[in-house]
Amino acid sequence: MPVALVTGASKGIGAACALALAEAGHDVGIGFANDAEGAESTAQAVRNLGCRAVVHQADVSDEDEAAGLVSAVEDALGPLDALILNAGITRDGPALRMGAADWGAVIDTNLSGAFYTVRPALRGMLRRRTGSIVAISSVVGLSGNIGQANYSAAKAGMIGMVKSLAREAAPRGVRVNAVAPGYITTDMTAGIPEQFREQILEHTPLGRFGTPDDVAAAVRFLCSEDAGFMTGAVLSVDGGMAIGA
Ligand code: NAD
Q: Domain coordinates of the chain in residue numbers?
């Protein structure tokens, strides 16, 4: 069975990706930061689909912990065929009032955390000449957003990283792509005030928020042979929000 690792898979988009990959026949490593109960419930759902699952706690913003996550999952399940760089946080605020701590936390987790996780995984994939990596970026990495200078910079940075890694890894048959979700109903967007929710919907041609399953379907596709000629791509899953961006 192919093996996938999903970071931040205790809930939300990460949990949906873990299940979608299990449905496609992957054994799944479930990375989590704090929510052990959520991670275990994702693992149980993967096992209910007849696949193996292992959970491992790691703060991806710590290089050693990120490397430890990759090796723990490979020790338990075998070499990685797919890696989903999903762990992320927000610390929103207007740029002029954004402290260095809020800037740094978002860059460290969302961008450096992805880099720290992808490197040890990529090393093995390049050696084996196979593998698919998907980074969860964001529509705001393409467009920017008021109050999200840190988050938009991190998500745009992920796209630059993905395109560079795609070029580096292509000669060895390893594919690296990004998904850029629009507004998806998860804990991350639960606190958005009603007034902003209406504005977001007005700018979403399909007229609804996305679901974690909408994003997971794109991730599953990118990890499949159906996407075998895709690398360095940024797939928008945003209800049309980024049309023209
Ligand atoms: P969420 O808050 O439900 O999940 C985020 C996950 O990341 C959690 O499991 C959390 O524990 C984990 N995480 C946070 N910091 C971590 C760290 N230092 N180390 C390891 N894990 C860590 O949010 P979500 O909406 O499911 O977000 C998943 C990803 O999708 C994030 O990268 C987010 O930026 C991105 N995204 C979300 C939306 C949206 O509208 N919800 C839109 C675009 C992109």
A: 3-236
CA nearest to 56, candidates 80, 75, 81: 75
For residues 5 and 133, give the distance between their C-alpha atoms in angstroms, rounded to a whole number.
Answer: 10
pLDDT digits (tens, 9 = 90+) for 183-223: 999 999 999 899 989 999 999 999 999 999 999 999 999 99
- Ligand 1 pocket member 10 (CB < 6 A): yes
Residue 244 scores a pLDDT above 80: no
Q: What is the mean pLDDT of the chain?
A: 97
Cite the active site residues: 151
Q: Which CATH superfamily is domain 3-236 in?
A: NAD(P)-binding Rossmann-like Domain (3.40.50.720)
Q: Tell me the sheet residues that pair with 82.
A: 4, 132
Q: Is the CB of 88 under 6 A from ligand 1?
A: yes
- Other Cβ atoms closer than 10 A to 49: 16
Q: Does the beta carbon of 151 lie inside 6 Å of ligand 1?
A: no
pLDDT tens digit sequence for 112-142: 999 999 999 999 999 999 999 999 999 999 9
The dihedrals phi and psi of 53, each to the nearest 5 degrees, come to -140, 145
Dihedral sign computed on CA atoms, order 74, 137, 153, 42: negative
**Closest C-alpha to ligand 1, atom 33:** 88
pLDDT digits (tens, 9 = 90+) for 25-58: 999 999 999 999 999 999 999 999 999 999 999 9
Give the predicted TM-score (pTM) of the model.
0.98
If you measure from the C-alpha of residue 188 to the centroid of ligand 1, how many angstroms do you get, rounded to a whole number? Answer: 7
